[in-house]
Prior knowledge:
- The protein is of the alpha+beta class.
- It is built from 16 helices and 7 strands.
- The strands form 2 sheets. It has a 4-stranded antiparallel beta sheet with strand order 1-2-3-4, covered by helices on one side. Strands 5-6-7 form a 3-stranded antiparallel beta sheet.
Amino acid sequence: xxxxLKPLDVQREIRPGKYPDGDGLYLIVAGATSKxxxxxxxxxxxxxxxxxxxxxxVSLKDAxxxxxxxxxxxxxxxxxxxxxxxxxKRAARQEAKxxxxxxTLPTFExxxxxxxxxxxxxxxxxxxxxxxxxxxxYAYPTIGKLTIRExxxxxxxxxxRPIWLEKRETANRVRGRIETIIAKNVDVDDTxxxxxxxxxxxxxxxxxxxxxxxxxxxxxxxxxxxPQFMADLSLAGGIAASMLRFxxxxxxxxxxxxxxxxxxxDGRSSTWKIPGERMKMNQDHVVPLSDPALAxxxxxxxxxxxxxxxxxPDGGLFSENAMLAVLNRLxxxxxxxxxxxxxxxxWAEECTDxxxxxxxxxxxxxxxxxxxxxxxxxxxxxxxxxxMKDWAQFLAGSEIIRLxxxx
Length: 407
């Protein structure tokens, strides 16, 4: 019955237990100094206990008023539906906890900045430029302020859709970078996590369908014209011309030669070790140097002052267009610098019998065949040394025996 408890009972009772006052109100006693009010009710077939405060702070009269107010909220009326107060408070606590966790968790942008800083010293200049700028332009506006767990495939779709067709390579790289950063910040044991930036069938089907790609090869000089070109190039003065000659003798890429350093040259073994961060496949590449390539280095070493083998007049890196300017100056504006790799590959294919693995290793290509990869790992250096020697002799105008690479 209501009003069963008296104020003096509340004050004196110290035995542990639940003492009813009526209409669901209880005094919960845990000890002499631990006594609290609680309202028991039923909602949707479940029993709930709603705390109303300590007896020190809430009098018997106020506890009854709080019970009556709670009962009205739970029951509701015609205009206001009833609520489960305990469940409501529980949800509020969970939401507050989620907000607190969100505040302490880093955002995607913060995770990306950490990832970039960790790898900065190992990256090439190209990577240092592209990673921050591409993420800032395409990723941060959509997912930069979200935590890793908040990112959904729909977010990735929205940021990729505008550039999927018009900026194909950029879109591919941005998606891959997002996927990498997310993977870096997920527990390795969390097998249930699905990376939202993974190029799944769902994401691929949602994105605009790309037309079939047309492969455009870099305009290359026919290998039959290469000896005469090298003769003309040898008469051209300047560091950029020497850099182009070295590039052709080594069959390497533009950025690999532009950023070449003296510390990478091993005179005793006549090799040039290019670190993986400058290589397209991100793996160290050892180039056997022919005598003409070494002669270029020997001539430059006398006046060398800095770390770069081919510094510009200010001592810094040449622009990647510097060698293209040499071609234009010599009247060969119909070919590209990168095209000389094709010149070398075509010559090696048509004029020698070196195995595919040796030719591909010389170009630092990735191998689809595991058998070829295993072969070139075990035999590539000395075979390539012979290949590059034959290439140098060909460029000098000497005849090369077709079977020189056999065996």
